[in-house]
Amino acid sequence: MTMMGGIWSLGGSLQIATIVFLWKILEIYFPGHLRSSIISYSMKLASLVSPYIYIRFPEFIGDSEEYMGVKRSDAYAAIETYLSGKSSREAKYLKAVDVKDSSQPVQLSMDENEGVTDEFEGVKLSWAVNKEYTRTQQSFSFYPQMDEKRYYQLTFHKSHRDFVNGTYINHVIQKGKAITVSNRQRKLYTNNPSQSWERYRARKWSHATFEHPATFDTLAMESKKKLEIVNDLEKFSKGKDYYKKIGKAWKRGYLLYGPPGTGKSSMIAAMANHLEYDIYDLELTTVMNNTELRKLLIETTGKSIIVIEDIDCSLDLTGQRKNEKKKAKDEEVKDPISKMTKGEEDSNSKVTLSGLLNFIDGLWSAIGGERIIVFTTNYVEKLDAALIRRGRMDKHIELSYCGFEAFKVLAKNYLDVDSHPLFATIGHLLEETNITPADVAENLMPKSLNEDAEACLKKLIEAIKTAKEEATKKAEEEARLKAEKEEKEKLEATQEDVKIDKSLAKDVKENGVEVVKDDKTLANEVKENGVTA
Ligand SMILES: Nc1ncnc2c1ncn2[C@@H]1O[C@H](COP(=O)(O)OP(=O)(O)OP(=O)(O)O)[C@@H](O)[C@H]1O
Ligand SMILES: [Mg+2]
């Protein structure tokens, strides 16, 4: 189909008709892989006499022999977007690339075997989209599977070689990227299990349109803290030159920690909405090893937030668990047979702490533009210090129970009230009670059409009182258990002392000599009598 690319520059309806006819014959009578060989040989033949130059932009780049290592080409995507307008006006065979919401037009691109012409600074160029077939690298089969590889082909007269290399291609890529940014719909990605990566076109990430409505305005937290985070994000997103100057990869790590329901996930959504970034929600438990993790990283794009939720649950990454693992390993060394029986489990070994650290700040982490990495956890104290040190997780943000200021944000959002006589009671109760913003929000939400703001606020007051009573009961119960435990320990210690005393007395009686008292007995005597015996 390379020949088709030349059609648009050659002109002449007879030539076009002949070539289209030949192409149809090729398509009907020759299978895909044979067709691409015929095309490739005819192209070589034609190039001997043709004054045209052809540049190919494949859809996937990387090691073409190893499908697992390929990445969708940014240039291909930019060209697709750049040509979208022209394609929808000129091409006859089109396909819908991205169907957006009903308020926006469908983005169209040329279908295979189609071509359009472009003119830039007086130079005419032609574009075509083609595909070729290659054999997949799968196990031996009598019916080998063929993979399609799409590519854009640019054709131009050889006199414009320098202009195209120096100016035109740059213009196309820049323009394509700018269009993408202006009408892009943000995406929420999640990683596919690696078993489905085998096929060439199978992606490592699946995506859906990101539509979470949380913003920093709807987020309930102290305004000072909120402003600090917003400023931090903005400084980062505009910091390209700064990061270059200080010699650091353009990325920033955030650790969000706090009890369940305090807004960690909501904050990630608010960050993405504020910066207009995509989100890559990385499910670490389906990643088999460090190599897979790196491959996933390579496939992420710039202007994105990579999220690992509940990092403490995802993997054996906590310091504590690592020690347990080390202990288990030491035991294995002592007992090689047990190691062999555990062999199967080991081969399934998952991402390690060092693999994750590499993911965050290894050499590979610097590719592909600005990126934010966010970890969330309910138990910050469980995390390994190496994982959350500054430079990796640059900013630690605690999301905590609902304070009065956070309540006011929720009241404004949920009930549209800025002030109310019941606010004072609520403020007072919140000072004494730990209740999550999720619980407050749930109580503020009207449950029927007749429920007004006052009814909701009263409902909240009752909920906080109940939470307070429960917390008091819980604290009392804990105090009782603690006292019981202390009492038991004291009793056990006394019984131990009595035992020692009795054995001493027995020694004296039997042997007629006094045995030197041990330190504990002496200390007890000093405590009780104020003098040593
Ligand atoms: N700070 C907050 N501001 C606004 N809404 C909140 C806040 N915290 C919680 N919510 C509400 O509670 C719900 C749960 O919050 P979210 O999922 O963000 O909590 P989380 O901290 O991620 O919890 P988990 O640790 O269980 O994942 C959200 O849908 C949101 O409506
Ligand atoms: Mg969450």
UniProtKB/TrEMBL annotation:
Pfam families: AAA, AAA_assoc, AAA_lid_At3g28540. Keywords: ATP-binding, Coiled coil, Hydrolase, Magnesium, Membrane, Nucleotide-binding, Transmembrane, Transmembrane helix. The keyword Disulfide bond does not apply. Residues 324-345 are annotated as: Disordered. Its cofactor is Mg(2+). SUPFAM superfamilies: P-loop containing nucleoside triphosphate hydrolases (SSF52540). PANTHER family: BCS1 AAA-TYPE ATPASE (PTHR23070). This is AAA+ ATPase domain-containing protein.
